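Homework-ish question, so no full write-ups if that breaks the rules, but can someone show me the predicted structure for this set?
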Amino acid sequence: MDGQTPAGSFSLGTMFRPGLPDPAPRFAGLPKYNFVYGHNDPDQVPAEALAESAARVLSQNGHLLGMYNLGQAPLGHDRLRAFVARKLAQRSGIACTVDDVLITSGSLQAMDLVNNLFVAPGDTVIVEAFTYGGAITKLQKLGARIVPAPLDAGGLDMEALAAILGRLKAEGVTPKFIYTIPTVQNPTGSVLSLERRHRLIALSRDHGVPIFEDECYADLVWSGERPPALYALAPDRVIHIGSFSKSLAPALRLGYIVAAWDVLGRILATKSDAGSSALAQMVVADYVETRFDDHVEDLRAGLHAKLDVLIEALGEEFGTSAELSVPEGGIFLWLKLPDHVDVRTFAKAALDQGLAFNPGPEWACDPESARSHMRLCFALPSPQHIREGIAELARICFEHTGVPERGANRSRV
Amino acid sequence: MDGQTPAGSFSLGTMFRPGLPDPAPRFAGLPKYNFVYGHNDPDQVPAEALAESAARVLSQNGHLLGMYNLGQAPLGHDRLRAFVARKLAQRSGIACTVDDVLITSGSLQAMDLVNNLFVAPGDTVIVEAFTYGGAITKLQKLGARIVPAPLDAGGLDMEALAAILGRLKAEGVTPKFIYTIPTVQNPTGSVLSLERRHRLIALSRDHGVPIFEDECYADLVWSGERPPALYALAPDRVIHIGSFSKSLAPALRLGYIVAAWDVLGRILATKSDAGSSALAQMVVADYVETRFDDHVEDLRAGLHAKLDVLIEALGEEFGTSAELSVPEGGIFLWLKLPDHVDVRTFAKAALDQGLAFNPGPEWACDPESARSHMRLCFALPSPQHIREGIAELARICFEHTGVPERGANRSRV
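A: Not a homework solution, just the prediction itself:
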């Protein structure tokens, strides 16, 4: 009887707090040509080996799931934290122990936890001018004043950053941190040189500004070689985050924060989720201990091959109309169309036709500055879908903007 | 060189935002006699069957982990949502579809998401006078004004609730919701009768106040019979949450919210974690489809046997000094010592001696009202540890308060 109250007689929505974001749209399925959202290559998920690991850890230690955190520290599963510490020592030059590692539910939770530690409404943060769109929206939601720092082909421009810090100092403002993705920058794909890293640390020291280092993509540098992490160079002034989303699989939802206890102890105090899925932590710990290096090498080769397909397709379809920032690793490519093209004018039309890309403005502190840019993720689509998708993109873009007038081989007009 | 800055020369802590909670203590291991924190019985985790499910789903669909949310809706894994809908129809009388189910990282995230949807600082919420301690701290953190509603042996006292709602109405205050745990109330263990459920819905309707129904423990009613969920009686005015933490294993971190799309769509818009661990969702979906009913029946029997051990041990050690609220299901028992006993006077001493219990004041809107109460979780400790632990508890309690002067069989003085 109570369930039969006529619809509309009472709406829970009238009781919602003010200031909520607009409702999410209903899920409409993934677009056919999907160049967004940081998916990985499903064909490169080591499903059989993960199945073996899962069967092994559950048979041996499944009973521990009966306890929150497996009865271990709230920092996360001991065995996975130990692997993260070893991996970071080996690959990123970081000297840390398991006590410096907090496992998170992906690097998104890591970002939320770190942002929430520092940022109160009105606080200033420095962010790379082009950066992960989610980082911008998260900081905006906290009421941060976001000051963009210019990038060039080598990453953060240190002269420009020094000038910004000087200007802020003159205003009496000390930024809460500099958020940077130094190793495979999102979206430009650059890797910051060791020299610039030292310069960045020096600026951080001179101005008393912490560094928030995001190394989501660092295991996917094509060459396999990368400079030491900023955290390796100055552990007292850097908070480091990373993830298994790009090196293994995003739906596992496993990332980590590396920081000293005076930081992690505070973060734990603000964390209200009773830990990340311990099943995922157990399975991944078992898998990565023996197979991570080989897996990452195979994954890199596969991703690089897809990037080559993408670059070739862009050359064929867009010719000289698209300036590519060819990435030094990772899963996305950043490109620029001629100045008069605003990619927002056809993003919706493309989506309606089953093709999704990240409009540059969503990946930029100053949206207008990236109106002619777009980010294309290439890990998920097959080589055939990459080729077909880029042909579609060129067709739709031309329809709306007149660009590209011609590909490498043929004219559209 | 940069890494060798003398310790203390720069502290990231100086940049933290104001208003953070105190740092978390370092993890010191679980206490020997552990009557806290809602752990389950490790011996009752179906580890081998979960291993089979994990091997199966990863071999068949492990590649889907390469996509966020397995390429499915942000509401969570289709197969697990379908099971939740079927389970709720069968056990709780709820008629809902997969579109009304959002999978969360445990019911803690569910609580955070629902609280955040309604509560702005200064908002009033009605909460059962004795309730889950985490619910109180979460609401306090949001700046809510918490109005306690009295309980009796049958759960929420409807006359008292009507009076509270009337008084608030006279003040011009409409509470944002009534938060209730109707089926195996935490901590008192009662199950609200169908008659009271109808009365509660009527009060909700008369006063235009939503109901936030928490059914964490509802699958663990000893009798296997329970009245329909409040959501079943009034889906337009109830938000329902539940969990697999108590019916399967807490370290899986899987819970759910059941609500109409106008609620879930808003919640999704505020959710920033890209979904809960899909590996856990896949494994649990495969397991529960065929084994949930049998598992829960076995689990209930095992838990009830442990409760019997606990009740016997309390009788032996505390005699008539402890008034027990014998629970109708679940994993904890609520008890009261004589009025002059303040359990806070020996909680720390007990912990130092390896024994942990939940002091009543942490499970009460008005801490003083529960100074003589404590909550004892009995799922984790073995029968032997339950007996030894309760003997220890009586010894420590007597040392600090002179109670219990005698157990059933012997005097302490």
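Now go work out the reasoning yourself. Hint: Chain A touches chain B through 116 residues (CB under 8 Å).
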